[in-house]
Every structure is written in C-alpha cells, then in structure tokens.
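Thread: Metapyrocatechase, structure

OP (GT): Posting the sequence first so everyone is looking at the same thing. Length is 307 residues per the record. Can we get the structure tokens written out before standup tomorrow? I want them in the notebook alongside the other entries.
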Amino acid sequence: MKKGVMRPGHVQIRVLDMDEAVKHYVDLLGLIEMDRDDQGRVYLKGWTEVDKFSVVLREADEAGMDFMGFKCLSEEVVDSLRAELVAFGCEVEDIPAGDLKDCGRRVRFVAPTGHAFELFATKEQTGKWGVGNHNPEAWPRGLKGMQATRFDHCLLYGPNLDRTLELFRDVLGFDLAEQVMTPDGKRVGQFLTVSMKAHDVAFIDHPEPGKFHHASFFLETWNDVLKAADLISMTDTSIDIGPTRHGLTHGQTIYFFDPSGNRNEVFCGGDYHYPDHEPVTWDAGELGKAIFYHDRQLNERFLSVLT
C-alpha cells in the first residue's frame, strides 16, 4: 500500500578530492552544479529533475555514501511515517530545515542493513534545467558529457535483508519488484520500487553493514549508453563493466568509477512495475546471467569493490 513516499530525492556521496569529483560528475556524467554551502558541499542535479538538487558531494577521508533521501508528498506524510518508523524500532533523528541548502526538515533513520536514509517533503524547485516548464524545448543546449537526465537509484550492500524488506514494504510502502533466492529459500538480493520504475533502491546480502555499491543515473537511449562508454575511454576513466544488458530489470548499462573509487552506473530502458505484479525471481545459481545477461558471468570486481 502506498504511504506517500514519491521517489528518490537525493544521495550524499563522500569524495576524497572535491575538485576531481566535480570535474567527474559535471564534465563527464553531465550533472549540473547548482550550489555550494558553507561546509564546502557541492549540490548537483540532472537536467530533467525539478528539485534544486539530487546529488550532494562531501569531501571526506573515506569514500562512500552518507545517506539517501526519499521525497514525500507532504509534511504530514513525513510526520506519519516518522511515528511508524519509531514503532518499527528505528532510531530516528530530526534534522532541521536548511541543514541541506534550500531543503526542508528531514527525518533520518538507519535501516537494518546499516544504511542511513531520510524522508523529506520540501525542497526548492528550480524546474527542468535549460527548458523550464512553459512551452519547453525538447532538451537544453549546453549539456556536458553523458548528459545524465536524473538520479535514479542506489544499490547497497548489507545484512538483514528480510527485516529491511519489512521496513520498506510495510512502513514506507515500497513493492518488491525483483529478488534473488538461494536454493534453501534465502533472499540474497531485493529490488524495491515506490513507483513504476524497475527499482528505486536495491539491496544485496553482505555481512558488513552500510556498504555502497553504486549510484545510478538514467539516460534516454542505448546509443547514449554507447556514447557514455566512448567518453569513459576518452577520459581514461576507470571502467567496471559494460556496455551490456542486465537480466534483472533488463536495463542496458555501463559501470565505472569516480576518482574516489565510488561506482557509478548510467543506464537506459528497464522494466516497469505495477502494484499487482508478482515479484520477478532469479535463482542465485543464475546470478551471472541475472546481472550480466550477455556474458552470463560475474565480474569479481563488481561483487567485491564497495565503498
């Protein structure tokens, strides 16, 4: 049952060198720098996103993800879900408006996988970059690099997937769109959606809590993914795998690393999900084909490199 969570709202990523990171996310990925704050954080967005920012970069000594935020329909929804999170047993932290620039208050909680998430309802809306909302053109001139359209999802590694599914499904209103199951019935991968998308957040079972696998950004066409691959080579960017297709979600994809070692994905296509769809199930023995549909073999770096 939908609870008023709309979509992924933002992700804050730790980077080791801000200048290198901005060059990567702006010049290569094609995000637009929107602002900076007195903490030195940099705020970015994809050109189709209406909110002011969806990616926040923070310089730190260790790479990884600080938190992922989801936008809710209203402040009343945030209040209601806050109470449900407390009842579920989550530790909840109230973060005042303005802590993130031009963003309202946020309710932060830690999932059983060890990852920090936030709920919020208010953020300044700047509209689609370069085209606006009145008689808009097809796309803006002046985009750079891969021309990423939006922040789409995160894939996260940690323990306690069953309890995390209960949290996202029963409290936050997500659906289980796809899953990976072992022969003895253990769920070792779960792809969760709060929309019609293939997934808005995904989790892989891993003994160490709170690990970040990748942040993903949407492109429009397969040709855009191929162009992204060209740009990765042109810039000598560290590539992980692709271009290829997933079996899971059927998205067409390429993975690469930012200068700090955080993995990025750009992809196009993918399945859609309605609430009456049964979860798609993959056997763990078919994981190679599920992740890399063409090669049908797992890349060890894809499984083991986390931040």
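GT: Both are above now. Quick notes for whoever picks this up: The chain has two domains: 5-120, 152-304. The radius of gyration is 18 Å.
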